[in-house]
Structures are given as structure tokens and as C-alpha cells.
Design goal:
By secondary structure, the chain is mainly alpha-helical. It is about 55% helix and about 0% strand.
Length: about 150
Amino acid sequence: MATFIPLISSGSAGPLGVLHLPRLWLKASLEANGKLDSRYPGAGQGFDQMTISALGLEREAVLSFIKGSKPSYAQFEAWVKAQLGVKLDAASIAAHNASVLGYNHDDETRKGVLSACGIVDDGKVLDAVHLNDLDSWQELYEAELK
């Protein structure tokens, strides 16, 4: 059975406007179906948990819904909207999105990703969103395109 590297960026948002939510859905959905590449967590403690927490959701409820219902992305967003206490006001979404866009990996992680991609570390790529994209693209290239 094929496994997949999740290529939806943390910098992507669906209709709710929440960055990383589509990637969280994809990773958790792939894991629930046994199709997530083993190098990725279905829901890790980084952007995944940041997003769950920022929205005021319960981690196990999110993962249980995805595993049990196998929702499309639109169905997942509808479920998120229906949760009691969910934080989808403009200020909460803006604060979360700023946290995602403003998060930088540590120097060792940055250097490792850039080196693996053959990119000189000139200090221009610092944020985790772009570094994670580069990392995923490189892993896809190595696994499937090389």
C-alpha cells in the first residue's frame, strides 16, 4: 500500500481562514487510513497542536472525528464550526495565523533542512512554514521523483 507525504502547506487555509487546518486534516486523515508516510505524525505537538489549541478544540475529539467519520475537508470545517466553545472569531484566527507565520525553527533544524535541499543558508529562509515546505518537497523528490 502506498503512503503519502503531506504536501498541503501549513501556510494554506480553507474557507474558515485558519492556517494549517487543511494540513492537519490531511495528515490525520492519511494516518487514519494507514497512508501517512512514516516520517510524519498524524497530529504532532507543533503546528498541529497549536492549531487545535488555538481553536479551543480537544485533540482526541478532532482525531476521533477524523478517524471515525473520514470527512472531506469541507465536512471537517463544518464539524469544527459546530463544536462548542470553538474560537473562530476574527481576532482568534488572526492571532493563530500570526503565530504560525511567525514561528521559526531552531538553527540546527533550519541548517539541516536547507542542507538536505542543497540550499545555502544565507539567513533568508527562517520561518517554519517555508522550511517545512522545502523539507516535504525534498522528501517527495527523494522518495518518488529522483
